[in-house]
Amino acid sequence: MVNLQVYTWKMIFSIPNRKIGVYTQGEEGPLLVFIGGIHGNEPSGVSALVRVFDKLALLVPSFKGKVVGVRGNMAALSRNVRYIDKDLNRLWSESAIRRVKTRSSEEWNSEEGELMELLSMIEKNTDGSHAPEILIDLHTTSAPNGLFSIVSDDPFNIQLASAIYAPVILGLTESLTATTNIFMKNRGYKGLAFEAGQHTDPASVDNHEGRCCMNKIAQRQGDGMVRKRPLRVRQSFAKGAYQGRSFY
Question: Is the pLDDT confidence value at 48 over 90?
């Protein structure tokens, strides 16, 4: 089992680049973009992505398409706080993006600068050369046992989430209107947000790596289609379970 503190130190200080890794063999296929650490107190996704790209470099599996892993809120990750000035996962509406773009970079707060860098990296990779274009946002919760996916009502996304073997939450995207899920929907990307467990639980890193990242990479082998598996969906979020807790 991974030592989360050791891996967190490695990914923040030893490798300070936003890009964690890129894996492709130049063949046509889907694009998978994984974002870890949109919230700085949720380093599990970044730690998992470091492990994933280490394994891809070692094993060099055959793959059609492209896999990209990036760090989200780098300033907040370095301080182990959710955000510096404003929640980065509440800035992804098209109106919010336009407002940031109309101002000079000197006027941006910390998260607005992070947003613009992430947006540039996403747009650079989603250039139409791969299909489908899939974004997966990796999160953890402050409460224990927070293992679930959050998706829009797109059938592809629901089936994508169902293959993780964790509950699927529908309806939350509509109540949180400036998250990465809304950004995916507005831009026509496929994807989901995945909550892998509690922030400091080492099992969260394992869940991010195995249930989500390597799972999705394996599913894109060959025909690039989602392998159908049993679907478990919660039609509405159990509000009481996470009341007063932070997630997504």
Answer: yes
Tens digit of each residue's pLDDT (9 = 90 or more) over 25-43: 999 999 999 999 999 999 9
pTM of the model: 0.85
- DSSP per-residue letters across the chain: ---HHHHHHIIIII---SEEEEEE-S-S--EEEEEE-SSTT-THHHHHHHHHHHHHHHH----SSEEEEEES-HHHHHHTSS-SSS-GGG--SHHHHHHHHTS-GGG--HHHHHHHHHHHHHHHH-SSSSSSEEEEEEEEESSTT-EEEE--S-HHHHHHHHTTSS-EE-SHHHHSTTSHHHHHHHHT-EEEEEEEEETT-HHHHHIIIIIIIIHHHHHTSTT-PPPP----EESS--GGGGTT----
Of 154, 155, 163, the C-alpha closest to 186 is 154
If pLDDT is split at 50, 70 and 90, which confidence band does 248 have? low
